[in-house]
Amino acid sequence: MGQVTLYLDSQTVERMKAAAKAAGTSQSQWVATLIREKTATVWPPTIAQLAGAWKDDFPTLEEIRREAHEEVSREPL
Question: Which of 25, 35, 38, 41 is most deeply buried (CB count within 10 A of its CB)?
């Protein structure tokens, strides 16, 4: 396991300590989790499960085209 030294200002240290305590984990584990989340290359399963969740809320392409109106004139640049 590697070790990393971080230099943080006191306000950031206090925020990190509070966040780690609220998460019920050590500061080291909290930072490691944050790094894993920020460097992930795939969507978490909870996000992937949202695909298609709004199928009834969004109009289809055909509906958008059917309701499309002529573009409004704009002021010249």
Answer: 25
